[in-house]
Amino acid sequence: MSDVEQYIEERRRRDPEFAEGFDAGFTDFKIGVLLRQTREAAGLTQEQVARKLGTQKSAISRMENHAEDVR
Questions:
Q1: Which pLDDT belongs to residue 24?
Q2: Which residues of the chain have a pLDDT value below 50?
Q3: CB 46, CB 39: distance < 8 Å
Q4: How far apart are CA 13 and CA 20, in angstroms?
Q5: For an engineered disulfide with 59, which of 35, 52, 55, 64 has Cβ 3.0 to 4.6 Å away?
């Protein structure tokens, strides 16, 4: 286990609020990564995905790049 992983685990044990925020942030991160990987595997651009979802390219970019406000 790396020093960073060890620090995160220790902090999660001591601080439930940190653990909750960390878990939520990690879930958002994974969703963005999965969106990008799936889009690229399908050979689609952000613009094409946005059109299919009825949204703007900028919204897809924010999701993929883990921006906190993806409205």
A1: 82
A2: 70
A3: yes
A4: 11
A5: 55
DSSP single-letter state for residue 25: H
| Amino acid, res. 21 | G
Tokens of 10: 């220790």
> Residue for token digits 């958002």?
28
The pTM score is 0.65
- Measured distance CA(16)–CA(29) in Å, rounded: 20
Residue type (1 letter), 53: L
Q: What was the pLDDT predicted at 27?
A: 82
Is residue 59 within 8 A of residue 50, CB to CB? The reply is: yes
- CB-CB contact of 19 with 12 (8 Å): yes
**Helices (H) and strands (E) in the chain — how many of each?**
4, 0
**What length is written for the chain?**
71
